[in-house]
Amino acid sequence: MKKNDKGLYRTAITINGKRKWFSGKTRKDVMQKIALYRIEEKQSITFGSVAEKWQEDNWDRLRFGSYRTYAPCLERAIQKFGKTDIDKLKPIEIQTWLRDLGRTYAFKTVANHKSIVSQVCDYAIVNLGIDMYNPCDKVKMPAGLKKGTRNALSADERTAILSTTKDENQLAFLILFTGCRLGEALALQMKDIDMKNNVVHITKSVAFHGNQPVIQTTKTENGIRDVPLLSPLKDRLKELNLPQEAYIVSGEKPMTKSALYRRWDAFCKAKGIHIDRHSIRHQYATTLYEAGIDAKTAQDLLGHAQIATTMDIYTHISAEKKLKDFMKLETFVANDF
Questions:
Q1: φ/ψ bin of 292: left (φ > 0), alpha (ψ from -120 to 50), beta (otherwise)
Q2: What is the pLDDT of residues 144-202, one digit of tens each?
């Protein structure tokens, strides 16, 4: 939906093979006119048609990372409910669909599918004036869905990263000592480092539009944060001796997605390891836990929007540590008791 020369928004729909145009001062005006026209013409409004309008109005506002997350969810929702009249969509249909998705996908992915359907239904109510309730309000997440977990690095993996020289890819080293998300690490410049006060200012992130890097805000408001500049990283940055405008990982400008994957694969091959960036961030969280950093401070350092996220990680780390302690006890009893 775009503005014409007169400053009005215009779009067209096809009903019974006929093309009809609608215009208005705002997108909402146009969508309300379409909704009223359909009601007057006794035309049903399908989930698919509303989803397309919701996408048209909201897609450009999504962060690129969010787009990659939601695009396949929206596609599956349209495949499933596209021909269903949106005001006839029942909670039991959505509940069954989510349960089916749960056989393939983890909790977070299933939750994203529910969220996208709910947003489309809210759009129908608020923007199109359709007299209905949001069926997702009655839907609960299926029980027993698996949740993705991250494990800390092994001793060999930590050693491999710590052996990174100043001439190698610094991405793993940087995440290990800052706990940055991937995009945040890629966006860090020397001007974000306060050498005098030993602080790293995390204020932005790199996302990819296709292959090209785009600088944007952090994932959440909590993502804008300061973390301590730990001595191993400070020493490394002194070695690198980069100009203030330089990106620590890539130099003059952020690297492309293809360069990121190529350099990461080369780094892992050279070190004889196979890890992902999330595991390194999890290692940072583990370091915080082992150093006795309380959960609230860890939440701030990791940039979590919710304390529950931090607590989940801390609980997982605690359980892992307890299991290792039990194994040590078993080994001791088996060999030396």
A1: left
A2: 887 655 677 888 999 999 999 999 999 999 999 999 999 999 999 999 999 999 999 99
What's the full length of the chain, in residues? 337
CA 241, 247, 249, 253 torsion-angle sign? negative
pLDDT per residue over 43-71, tens digit each? Answer: 568 999 999 888 888 776 666 556 667 88
Integer-rounded Cα radius of gyration of the chain: 25
Whether residue 233 contacts residue 256, with contact meaning beta carbons closer than 8 Å, is answered with: no
Alpha-carbon distance 92 to 88, whole Å? 11
Give the span between the Cα atoms of 77 and 70, in whole angstroms.
10
> What is the distance between the alpha carbons of residues 68 and 142, in angstroms, rounded to a whole number?
24
Q: Are strands 212-216 and 2-3 parallel, antiparallel or unpaired?
A: unpaired
Task: Please indicate, yes or no, whether the overall pTM of this predicted structure exceeds 0.85.
Answer: no
Q: Identify any residues that bridge with 225 across adjacent strands, giving them in sequence order.
A: 202
**Which tokens is 39 given?**
């009601």
Amino acid occupying residue 268:
C
Instruction: Using the CB atoms, write b or e for 234-273: b if 16+ within 10 Å.
Output: bebbeeeebeeebbbbbeeebbeeeebeebbeebbeebeb
Q: Which pair of tokens denotes residue 143?
A: 């029980």
| Three-point CA angle 144, 150, 152, nearest 5° | 145
Q: Which helix (H) or strand (E) holds 286?
A: helix 277-290
Task: Tell me which residue of 78, 50, 48, 57 sits closest to 2, measured CA to CA.
Answer: 57
